[in-house]
Amino acid sequence: MSQLVSHWYQNQVHRTEQGSSYIDIGKKRRVTVSMFKSMPLIDIREYYGADGDEKPGKKGISLSVDQWEIIKDNFDMIDQFLSDLKK
């Protein structure tokens, strides 16, 4: 792992007390990877509360691995949609 990637990883990836990994994407929003009823989920959610005592809010979505793969497979198309909006 390069020094830049290693530095980014150390500063961006966190763990909850329950052991789930998450990435802070700003403005009290997180992408969390966790297990629920033996199913891995990618959770994109807003949090509320004081720093260090954040709780998950109602605003967000939990994606199955299959749904996440569809998004990943279509990153280029999504980028194109964004580019088209800027024109």
Automatic annotation (TrEMBL):
Name the UniProt record assigns to this protein: Transcriptional coactivator p15 (PC4) C-terminal domain-containing protein
InterPro entries: PC4_C (IPR003173), ssDNA-bd_transcriptional_reg (IPR009044), Sub1/Tcp4-like (IPR045125)
Keywords of this entry: DNA-binding, Nucleus, Transcription, Transcription regulation
Pfam family, one: PC4
Protein localization: Nucleus
Residue ranges of every copy of the Transcriptional coactivator p15 (PC4) C-terminal domain listed in the record: 24-73
Family: Belongs to the transcriptional coactivator PC4 family.
A Gene Ontology molecular function term of the record: DNA binding
GO terms of biological process kind: positive regulation of transcription initiation by RNA polymerase II
Gene3D superfamilies to which the protein is assigned, alphabetical: Transcriptional Coactivator Pc4, Chain A
Native source species: Amanita muscaria (strain Koide BX008)
Gene Ontology cellular component terms for the protein in this record: nucleus
